[in-house]
Amino acid sequence: MSSRGRRRAPARHASPKSLSRFLGPIAVGAVLVLGGSAATGTPAVVTSQTGNTLVASGSPSKVPSTKSTHVKVVTGVRSIRNVTTVKHFKVSSTIIHSASVERGTKILRSKGVRGTVRYVYQVKVLKGKTIARTLVAKKIVNKAKPAVYIVGTGKPAKLNIDVKAAQGNTGTVKGNMQFAQVYIAEKYNWNQTQFGCLVSLWNRESHWNHAARNRNSGAYGIPQAMPGNKMSQFGADWQTNPVTQIKWGANYISRRYSTPCGALEHSNSTGWY
Questions:
Q1: If 154 and its partner were Cys, which of 93, 99, 148, 230 is the partner (CB 3.0–4.6 Å)?
Q2: Which residues contact 251 (CB under 8 A, 6 or more apart)?
Q3: pLDDT tens for each residue of 206-234
Q4: Is the overall model pTM greater than 0.85, yes or no?
Q5: For 229, which DSSP code?
Q6: Would you say 191 and 102 are in contact if contact means Cβ atoms under 8 Å apart?
Q7: CATH fourth-level superfamily of 78-150
Q8: Sorting pLDDT into bands at 50, 70 and 90, what band is 112?
Q9: What residues are paired with 88 via a beta bridge?
Q10: Strand, coil or helix: what is 99?
Q11: Which sequence spans correspond to the domains of the chain?
């Protein structure tokens, strides 16, 4: 075959020089990736994600360990809610001592009112247990009022006038009260304490004025009978005679409340008797 037609046959083995052309860049890349030094021969160390140490070349080197602080984390369902509670307070009592009431007698002057307060709390709950509780609102629903009692310290009063004489003195507030005191003591055996309750009751109703008239209800007279003509069973002069009115009023109290103090207690509680 002519020299022109001849082709150089490829070498069976690449020369070292040719091989270095290919291996050179690979070796350099390996050194850069593994972090070693080609000149010094320092082995490269690679730490995996699991914390194990891998040595790329050379003898294994000791890597100093670092201590890790373990923090306990409480996990669970956490919620915040508002909780409303209502608290009731018992009725307290106030005692008023009076020498005008016989010793050993206790009269309810005004009924007490139980106090009520509403509280709103912000409650933090974790895993079904309350971990914090803060008061966020407070409201007084009912203001407490004490019950007032009159306790007698006085001695029984002696009456120096009879019914007939007292009857002639009626027509004034003082005369009307004097007749009522004598009449209820003789007729119903009500003592000075009961008379004190009657004074308080009819002071509130009419101020012992036998001509008093309620424009709204039509109640009339000292006991404020409603209607006023109820008192006619004790006399046709019920509109002008205090004696007739007092007799009817005492009879009404006796039948319905037993005593003037019983009527006064009912009036203190409801506003009427």
A1: 99
A2: 234
A3: 999 999 999 999 999 999 999 999 999 99
A4: no
A5: G
A6: yes
A7: Resuscitation-promoting factor rpfb. (2.20.230.10)
A8: confident
A9: 116
A10: strand
A11: 16-51, 78-150, 156-270
